[in-house]
Amino acid sequence: MKKTLTSLLCAAVSLTLLSLACGEGSPPQVPQPLEDGGVLWTECSPEGAREDCSQGESCIFVASHDRHLCVRACDSQTACEHPDAVCCPSSGEEAEGGHCVPSNACVPTDAGVDGGSNEETDGGALEDGGTSTDDGGTQEEDAGVDPEPDAGTDPEPDAGVDPEPDAGTEPDAGTDAGTDAGTDAGTDAGTDGGTDAGHTPIRVMASNLSSGNYQSYDPGHGIRLIKGVDPDIVLMQEFNYGSNSAADIRSLVDQIAPGFHYSRETGAQIPNGIISRWPIIQFGQWPDPQVSNRDFAWARIDIPGPRDLWAVSVHLLTSSSSNRNAEAQAIVNQVRSQIPEDDYLVIGGDLNTDSFSESCFATFRQVVTTAGPHPADHNGNTGTNRNRNKPYDQVLVDQDLRQYQQATVIGSSTFPNGLVLDSRTYRPLSEIAPVQSGDSSSSNMQHMGVVKDFLVPNF
């Protein structure tokens, strides 16, 4: 489907900021965040251009901004893509050929505009607390009574947009101002996940990998496990770190993947969230009808190509299969009412399911595929709990995305149906550095990470 109107308008405004490079118009000001979250050009340095800029972009000095910026290059042989802009000849010693700018900015050499944007929303600190009706396991213990269990829930769930998406947005390279908007999209890491002209590889990981005594990623075991498999999108559970300030959460994300975007639910004791290589253009949370210390976090991700990817990070109860089925039905109802059928969908995280025969899988089957074969470790074991005998954790996608699933390949290891990551069985560990052999058996580590890979067309 077409991208959201907000994204297209933001892209057009951002491109206009470069019109001075073509010698026309009044000098633009240094870009500031827009009211809806904004799009900012990515600042770069000539020495680190390969890390700062995405594939197909150049790091050039733009005099009107008095800085180096990443812009998409074009020439008579390599045109822009969008019909409302042109390939404008560049000026300056460091610029060669041309760059994509709005069509009224200069005399065109060809038509087009770069459709991508680095839209940023900002995230905030968690308000701790919450009483859980979950009674299973040390990771599910209560940490207090939540005086406002619905805090942070989007008051307009059908709109699908956070009411304050730009609160605290920072125009610099991914630093967080520390406000509580519930989401930080950071800045792009300067890579495109291997995107080529035709397809984009996307690695999705389910991660309830907190450890230690506080359902937190502080001890570092989970950070290493995620970092070791280099995912593009992470469905996070128990998304706690440090004091849960915005700066601490930004630090956690940057330890996993510097500059990645993220969204994280507010008003939760053990919040869910999403980390993404690509911009998060909408986000929010859907109420969990069975528990008060967390909701279901969702994000709409602007992956390359005409379709968006909707990611839903969930953490179902341990208390009973009937409660889990009720939670699954609540998610299905939200998906059907809010997510366009022609976009991609992934639902994943900690389902706490005892077997694949549980009713919640049949319920989820209304919107995603749940049939095997399922991800496994080197030994072919599909269990994801600590004892490796229950399918707690899942990455479930709709049929549109499932058709593009491919084997997960890490180093010399190939996992045809995806990977269950257990540091106790993975060999050689050097393939997933910095993972250590004891990470998956660390104190209160009750889950394994689950990874699936997809090769999605850009058309």
UniProtKB/TrEMBL annotation:
One function term, GO molecular function aspect: hydrolase activity
Annotated signal sequence range: 1-21
Residue ranges, annotated region (Disordered): 111-201, 371-390
Which part of the chain is the Endonuclease/exonuclease/phosphatase domain? 224-410
Which InterPro entries does the entry link to?
Endo/exonu/phosph_ase_sf, Endo/exonuclease/phosphatase
Highest rank taxon of the organism = Bacteria
Composition bias, Acidic residues = 137-169
The cross-references to SUPFAM superfamilies, in alphabetical order and at most eight, read: DNase I-like (SSF56219)
Q: Which Gene3D superfamilies match?
A: Endonuclease/exonuclease/phosphatase (3.60.10.10)
Which keywords belong to this entry? Endonuclease, Hydrolase, Nuclease, Signal
Q: Where is the composition biased (Low complexity)?
A: 170-190
Its name, as the record gives it, is Metal-dependent hydrolase, endonuclease/exonuclease/phosphatase family
Q: What organism does the record attribute this protein to?
A: Myxococcus virescens
